[in-house]
Design brief:
The structure holds two protein chains of two kinds. Chain A has helices spanning about 15-35, 50-60, 60-90, 95-110, 115-130, 135-160, 160-170, 175-205, 205-210, 220-230, 235-260. Chain A is built from eleven helices and no strands. Classes of the chains: A mainly alpha, B alpha+beta.
């Protein structure tokens, strides 16, 4: 009997897969490896050393940029998450047509080329006479934090048994008590996952920040870009590697929160 | 005495629905009553329950709780609590916190809450489970927590939406007895929704049989079972033999019918408004039918000859199945009969007492 050949069984499929993963991850692995290079010359291996991480931590400009980045990402992700939570709760009661339209408009910032959003925001700030600085960056970041935070919250909300809300009302909870005691605690993993995704996307943003940041509002990605113009140094490697580690850690937490089943969510909430 | 729940001419049509969910329902439910809304799915029983709870507002008509018109009063302002079909226990709270929830929302003092939670847990045999989460409990335990949570604030009315449907048969029987006990002990009006007619008959003081958004009959279990108001109720409650027939003659209320499916004559004590020569549908419960011989029966009692095509012996009784000439199926439940009293292929004489026959217009 002749065996049928499914595409995934074809000769060389494994090789192609391996090459694809190499293409995706080899540059990142190289970056991390070279960030531990003892040599001053970036591309020549001089033995293992964490010394560049020390150099990064001792650089005042980097610390200032880090501080700016954390302020921006913290504030923008918080504001974006609050707006997303309100949107998710509001749209849950809306008609199907309104909801599809509103969700499409919410997702648009993810699809529009970033440079378009950047130029549009810059133009808006200039027209209304808003001074460019840390505040303008925070406002710009809040715009794209909303879609990142919205979807985890929305999928969590969709998985909630509506009878839980009815039970709370039935047991004499006012709408506000119901929200604080039942709805918010049950949505918490989704809200937290959304906030973390928003935080990460804000932390790594370069294009929009570059356009709307005024003097003194340099964030980490913008600072790294400035460093690169002088040349790729081991210090840059170490700094970007740190950014990578933070991102992986946060994404992992966000993923694990998203995986939690509804019936087993008691972390942090005492009844 | 004002009714615990007064429902008058309540109508409800959901947006986009072709037929109304409730097409003008009026009911009075007394205090301390175990009242059951019974009907097939889609009959409007759950919608009526949700209107009493305040989750839905009627399009027309009025709902009164303890004599007070509810209008658009939200659920949290009604002294009515619900046991949900899915239980809807708060998954992020312990058993004790679930039971305490209503009391906390009502702002009761901490000591009183603690004492009441302990009392409710004792009442529902949940001692020692106070710190568990709902997902650490068995189905039966979750059911009891849902009951305890709804009873904790001692509401005037408890609504139960098919609360036993997720339990297996044995647990279901236990909970039926448990619910009866709870209702008697607490004196709370229970409104129980089910599609299980046996459950309704066992548990209720009164039953409202619903169909297509309307109440077909309201009455005690014996009344509903013995004197169904129409053919739907007769067929929905218990087992019913339905036999097309024509009225041959009548003597006062008593009438003599000839079955369409055979030449047999059946006498009914109450032939209703059927005139001589008019068609009717006769209903007899299988356990009211007796086994001949013919000469043992008085002459004005209905006797039907039936060829047995199936037998079911269940120890306490023997069920005979057979068909009349026109295909009408008949069942007779003979209690105390022995397995050898009839055999498949036999033609037996069935005796139908005149007081067991109910007459309907087809």
């Amino acid at each position: 009997m002749k065996r049928e050949r499914a595409p995934r069984l074809m000769t060389g499929a494994g090789v192609v897969a391996a090459l694809t993963f190499a293409f995706l991850y080899l540059p990142i692995v190289t970056l991390v490896a070279l960030s531990f290079n003892a040599n001053d010359l970036t591309t020549i291996w001089g033995g293992f050393s964490p010394k560049w991480y020390g150099v990064v931590v001792a650089n005042d400009d980097i610390l200032r940029a880090t501080r700016n980045s954390l302020i921006v990402a913290g504030t923008a992700s918080l504001a974006g998450t609050a707006a997303s939570l309100a949107a998710a709760l509001g749209l849950a009661g809306a008609g199907r047509w309104e909801r599809t339209l509103a969700e499409g408009l919410l997702a648009l910032p993810l699809l529009v080329p970033e440079i378009v959003t950047a130029v549009a925001l810059l133009l808006t700030f200039v027209i209304v006479g808003f001074p460019l600085g840390l505040t303008s960056v925070i406002i710009a970041h809040t715009v794209f934090c909303i879609p990142f935070a919205y979807y985890p919250i929305r999928s969590r909300l969709a998985a909630l048994d509506p009878a839980l809300m009815e039970a709370a009302s039935d047991l004499y909870a006012s709408p506000w008590q119901r929200f604080m005691r039942i709805e918010l605690p049950l949505l918490a993993p989704g809200v937290l996952a959304g906030a973390l995704l928003a935080f990460i996307s804000s932390l790594g943003d370069f294009v929009i920040t570059y356009f709307v940041a005024g003097p003194g509002a340099t964030t980490l990605p913008v600072y790294i870009y400035g460093m690169i113009r002088v040349g790729v140094t081991p210090e840059v490697n170490a700094l970007t590697a740190i950014l990578l580690f933070v991102t992986i850690a946060v994404i992992t937490v966000a993923f694990l929160l998203g995986q939690r089943p509804e019936t087993d969510q008691n972390g942090g909430i005492e009844s | 005495m004002t009714a615990a729940i007064g429902i008058s001419a309540v109508r409800k049509t959901f947006p986009g629905a072709e037929h109304p969910a409730l097409a003008g329902v009026s009911l009075d439910i007394a205090e301390n009553e175990f009242f059951t809304l019974l009907g097939p799915s889609g009959c409007g029983k759950t919608t009526l329950l949700r209107i009493i709870a305040g989750f839905e507002t009627p399009d027309a008509g009025e709902l009164r709780l303890g004599g007070v018109a509810m209008g658009t009063t939200p659920p949290n302002k009604r002294s009515v609590n619900t046991v949900f079909q899915s239980y809807a226990l708060f998954p992020h709270m312990s058993v004790a916190a679930n039971i305490a929830f209503a009391l906390e929302m009502l702002g009761r003092p901490r000591d009183a809450i603690r004492a009441r939670v302990a009392e409710v847990m004792r009442l529902l045999r949940l001692e020692g489970l106070g710190d568990r989460r709902p997902n650490q409990l068995s189905g039966g335990q979750q059911q009891r927590v849902a009951l305890g949570r709804a009873l904790a604030s001692a509401p005037k009315v408890l609504l139960l939406d098919e609360p036993l449907s997720a339990l297996d048969l044995k647990l279901r029987r236990d909970m039926q007895i448990e619910l009866k006990r709870l209702q008697a002990e607490t004196g709370i009006t229970f409104v129980f929704v089910t599609h299980d007619q046996e459950e309704a008959l066992t548990m209720s003081n009164r039953i409202a049989v619903m169909r297509g958004g309307a109440v077909m009959q309201v009455g005690g279990p014996a009344e509903i079972y013995d004197r169904p108001a129409d053919l739907f109720v007769a067929d929905f409650i218990g087992e019913a033999n339905l036999m097309p027939a024509v009225l041959v003659d009548r003597k006062g209320p008593q009438g003599r019918f000839r079955l369409t499916g055979s030449d047999a004559l059946v006498v009914a004590n109450d032939a209703g408004t059927i005139g001589v020569g008019e068609p009717a549908m006769l209903m007899v419960r299988p356990e009211r039918i007796g086994l001949g011989p013919l000469n043992a029966a008085p002459c004005d009692v209905g006797v039907i000859a039936l060829r047995v095509d199936a037998l079911a012996y269940s120890g306490s009784d023997l069920m005979l199945h057979g068909a009349l000439a026109d295909g009408t199926r008949l069942r007779a439940r003979l209690s105390g009969a022995a397995a050898g009293d009839a055999a498949v292929g036999d033609t037996v004489e069935l005796i139908v007492p005149p007081d067991a026959v109910r007459v309907y217009r087809p």
